[in-house]
Amino acid sequence: MMRAGRFRYHVASTVADAAAALADGGPHARLLAGGTDLIPNMKRRQDTPDLLVSLRHVGELRGISVNGETAIHAGTSLDDIVKSAAIRAVHPALHRAASQIASPLIRNTATLGGNLCVDTRCNYYNQTFEWRKSIGFCLRGPVPDGICWVAPSGRRCWATASSDSAPALIALGARLTLLSREGERDIPLEELYADDGACPLTKRADEIVTSIRIPSRVVRSTYWKLRRRGSIDFPALGVAAAIRPGPHGVIEDARIVLGAVASHPLLVPESQLLIGRTLTDNVIEEFAEGAARHARPLDNTDFAMTWRKSVARSFLSGALRELRGDDPSTFPLLARETALRNGWRFE
Amino acid sequence: MSDYRVIGKARRRVDARAKVTGQTRFADDLSFPRMLHCKLLRSPHPHALLRQVDVTRALRAPGVVAALTGKDFSIRYGILPVSQDEEPLCRDKVRMTGDPIATVIATTEEEAYAALELIDVEYELLPVIATPLEALQCDEPRIHDYGDRGNVHKSVALEFGDVDAALAAPAHLFDDLFFYEGNTHLAIEQHASVALLEPDGRLALYSSTQTPHYVHRALSRALDLAPHRIRVVATPNGGGFGGKTDPFHHEIVVAKAALLTGRPVKICLTREEVFQCHRGRHPVMMRMRTSVDDDGFIKAVDLETLLDGGAYGSYGVASTFYTGALQTVTYRIPRYRFRGCRTFTNKPPCGPKRGHGTPQPRFAQEVQLDKIAVALGKDPADLRLQQLIEPHSLTANWLQIGSVGLRECIERVIDRSGWRSKWQKMPHGRGAGLACSSYLCGAALPIYWNDMPHSGVQLKIDRSGLITVFCGATEVGQGSDDVLAGIVAEVLGVEPYDIRLVTGDTDLTPVDLGSYSSRVTLMAGNAAIQAAERAKALIAGAVSAKLGIPEERLVFAESRVFDAADPAQGLAFRDAVIIAETIQGSIGTVGSYKPPAAAARFKGGGVGPSPSYSYTTAVAEVEVDAGTGWLRVEKIWIAHDIGRALNPTLARGQVEGSVYMGLGEALSEEQAMRRLPPRLSHALVHKTPSMLDYKSPTALDMPEVFVDLIEQAEANGPFGAKEVGQGPLLPIAPAIANAVFDAVGVRVDEVPITPEKILRALKASGRRAGPQQFPSIAWPQAVYVPPPWEGGDGRAATKAEEALQS
Fold this sequence. Notes:
The structure holds two protein chains of two kinds. By secondary structure, chain A is α+β, with helices and mostly antiparallel strands. Chain A contains twelve helices and twelve strands. In chain A, strands 4-5-8-6-7 form a five-stranded antiparallel β-sheet. Chain A starts with 7 loop residues before the first strand and ends in a 7-residue tail after the last helix. By secondary structure, chain B is an alpha/beta fold. Chain B is 26% helix and 24% strand. Chain B has 20 helices and 32 strands. In chain B, helix 10 (359-376) packs parallel to helix 18, helix 15 crosses helix 16 and helix 17 crosses helix 18. The A-B interface holds A 1-3, 6, 103, 123, 126-128, 130-131, 133-136, 147, 149, 152, 228-234, 302-304, 307, 310-311, 314, 332-335, 337, 344 and B 28, 42, 44-45, 97, 109-110, 113, 190, 268, 270, 272, 429, 623-630, 632, 668, 674, 676-677, 680-681, 683, 685-690, 692-693, 695, 697-701, 755-756, 759.
C-alpha cells in the first residue's frame, strides 16, 4: 500500500494553541482538519510536511449559527452543513455545493475550511511520485525547472481550482476570518485565492481559516456542478449564482462565479451588468454567452476541454433560469439532472 | 425437478457471514512472525535497455535485508506455453512504464519503499511503440524477439466456407468499423502475496490469485524448483474478473525472497501497480462485413480484428482467437471468416477480463444487426428471432451447441420492457436498444496440453458427521465455495452451512484449473456430484445392510438417511456415517470432470469449444440530451439463460454485477495512456491510474435493473446449470449504443459512449462517431474449413480441394 512519509503530530486543544504550533513549525508545518485532501497528497509525496497540527479536537472550530448573518466555524464537517436546515433554506447554493462534494463518507470527516483550501488539481500533478517521475515531474516540483505539461511553453501552473463550496460562498458574498499568532484579519472570500495553480491561496502559511460569514441579504442562489458520476468526483465545472431580486423582478445584486475553469474561483465581472435588469430569455442568453468566455478549461481534468466549455454556457443560462423560477423538470436532461441533483446522503 | 431441497433455492451464500463481518482473511490480512516486506522498483520509461542496475546503496539503507535484480532470476515464464515472455525482474530491457526492475526486502514497508530511491539504474531509451498502428508500421525496435514478425505478436485467419463468394453478390452488404476501448478489472482488492518456508523447508505462497494451479506451475518453472516442494494457497479474492489469472512477477519475487532470507515476505500492490499489472480488456479495432438477403437472413460474415496487446503475451493468443470464436453461436451464420491480429505495444499487457475477447466483436455484431434491422425496416428483436442458432447443432466453425434459451431470453425482455411499444415509438431524446450474446461454460481445453481432468473433488466424511470438500476451485467472490457446498449438500441431504470447504490449496486439494472462463460451476460442480454420489453409494450400502432397507429406497434429506416408503425408519446422517465407517472403513471419495472432446479438428479450433453455452438478452432504455450529448441509462431489462440457477441469490448477483461492469465499459471506463509531446518527453503513462480518476460507475449511476433467469436444464451442466459469471456483461454496451440511436438517430460505433462522442456524432454529417478506417494488414493464408453443412469432418482443407470435390 501507499504510505505517507514520517512526520511529527501536534494535537491542538485551542485555536490559539494551533496558531502557535503552526507558527513554530515554520514552512513545513501543515494543518490537519478532515485530512481527506492532505493525507492522499502526502501519500503521493505532493506534500511532505514534517509537522501536522491537528485541529480535530478544537471544539471552538465547529458549529453553525444563523442569526441574521450566518457564521460557520471552519472545522464544521461538510455533512453538518448538508444537514443544516437553516443553511438549506437560506443559502441553497452552499447546501447544494456541500452536498455534492466527494462522497458521504468523506463529507463525514472533511471540513468546510478544508474544502475552501483544497489544493488545486491537475491530471499531471495529482498522481503518485512514481508517475510524476515518469514524466520528469512538472512545474510544481519537486525538481526545479519543471515543465507545465498543460501549457509547455508557459511558465505558470494551470492547475484547476476544485472547491465546490468556494464558488458558492463567493457568490453569496461570504467573508473569511484568518487567525495567526499575530492576530486576526477579515477578507472577502474571493481574496483568499490567487490565480496561480502552484500557489493558489493568498493566506500566509501560519494563518488558520477560523470562520466563514455570509451576509443576511435575501438572495436566491444555486450551484450547478458538472461531473461524470453521481458521487465522488471533483467538479469539471461549477457555476454558482446568487441574485437579489427587487420589485418587479429587477435585479438589485448579482454574483455569478465559475469554478473548475481556472486556477481560482472566477467571479464573473459581467455579473454587474445584470443589475437593474430582469431575467428575460434575452438577458440570460446574452449574459451566458459573455460569461462563458471567461471559462477557459484546459486539458487537465475529466472530460474533453472543448466539451466542458460548451457546457459552461448552458450551465450559466440554466442556473439563471432556475433562479428566475423556471421549472427544472422541464429542462433538457443534463440541466434537469444538475438542477435537481442534491448529493445523496444517509438519512 | 422441483423436489430439490437445496438446488434452486435462494440462499445466503456459505461465506457471506465471514465477508460481511470482516472475518474473511484476504492475502493482505495475513501476517507471520518475522515477516519482511517487499517493494518493487518499476521502470519510469516505457521502452529502454537496462545498462546497469546497482542495489549497493539500497542494501546499506536502514531495515533493508535483501535486494534482488533481474540477474537473480534466469528463467522466463508466462501463462501460455507459447508466450513464455515475462521476467520476475527485468534483466536487460523494460517494455513498459511499470516493468519491475529490482526489489527491496526490508523489515517495514516504509523502509523498503525508501530504499527503492537508492537503487541506481542506467537506461538507454528506445523508441516507443504506443499504438497497434505504430506496431504494424514499425518492425524495429522489436518489443520482443518472438512473434509473427516485427511487433506483430500473432496473426490468425480462419475461413469456414467460401466467404468471398458469399459476399460477392449479396442482396445487402453491411460493412462497418467499430472500436472497443480497453478497460481494466478494478477489483476492490489489490493483488497481495505472502511467501514463507514451511517448517520442513518447503516453499508456501499465499496469494490473491484466481489460478493457484497455474501459479504453482509458473513458480516451479521460474524458480527451477520441483512442484512438490511448493505449495500455493489461493486466498479468497476480493474480486478478480480475470485480473488475477496470470502468474505475476510479484508472486515469484516474494517466493524467491523467502527462499533467500528464510523469512516470510509479503507484498501488497498499490492501486497504480494493479493498473500496470492489468491483463484487462484488449482495445480492439474491428471491421465487420455481413451479407444478408432481403429478409435479413445472414448469408456470410467476414470479421477482422486488430488487438492492442500491450507489452507481454499473457493470454493474448487465446484472446485473439476469442475475438472471432464465439461470433457464430447466437445466430445461424452459413459462412464465416475471421482474421485477427495482436500487436505488442509498450503498455500494460492486456489479457482476460470478464468475457475474454468476446465483448468487443459482440458489440460489433449486435450494433451491426441493429443497423441491418433499421435498413430493412425490421424490428431488431424479430430480425434475431428469425435466425437463432438451433439447439444441439454445430456452428460454421464446428462448435457443438447444447441447450439454447435465447428465444425465451428475447421474448422475456421484450415482454417485460414493453419493447414493442417503445422501440421507434418514444419521443426524440428517449430510446430503447436490444442486444443478445452468448458465452462459454468453461474452455474445453486447458492452458497447457494434457489429457487429465480439468477439475477434481475429494470428499472426506467421518464419524463426526462432518463432510469436508477438497477442491482446487478458487473463491474469487463469484460463489464457487457456495456452489460446491450446495451441490454436495443436495446429494447427501445435509445443510450447505454444515459442510467444511478446503479450496484452492495445491498441497491439500485436487487440481482444478482455476476460476476463469466461467468454468467452475460446470466443471467443479460435475466433479462434486460424482464424488458425492460415490459417497452416497458407500453410505447407502452400509445403511441398507444394517437396517435391511433396499438401497434404492433410501433417501438422503434433512440430515437423515431414511426409507422412502416409511420415513420414520431411518437415522441421522451422522449415525449413517458411523455405520458406513464401521462397515467400509474410512470414508473418502473422489470425483473428476473432463469436458467432452471438441468437434473442431483444425489448427486454431482449440479456442471456442465448451461443454455448453449460456445466452443473454438485454434491453436498455436511455435518455439523451441532444444539446450536450449527455446520456442517462434509465433502465436495463436482462434475461439470462442459465440452464438452472443453483442458488438464485448468487446468480442474480452475478447478473447485476455484469450489468454494472458492462455499464462502466459502455459509458466511461478507459485504460488509456498519456503520451507527452515527443520533442519534450519519452513518457507513456496511464492517464487515470486511481479509483478517483478511472471512472467506474458509482451506486448513483446504476440504472434500475430487472433480472430474469431462464431455466432450461443443460445436459452437460450440474443439475442442468450453465454459467452466469461473464455472459450477462456482453449485451450491455451494444444495447446502450442501439438505444442511443433510437433516441437521437446517431451511431456511436465505439465504447465508451461518452457525451463528447454523442455530441460529435450529432454534429457530424454522417451522424456517426467511430473509427474511420481499418488498417491494411498482411493476413496469413486462412486455414480453410468447410462448415458442417458443406461436408468435411471439422478438419482443415484447401479451397482448391473443395473446388475439385464440388
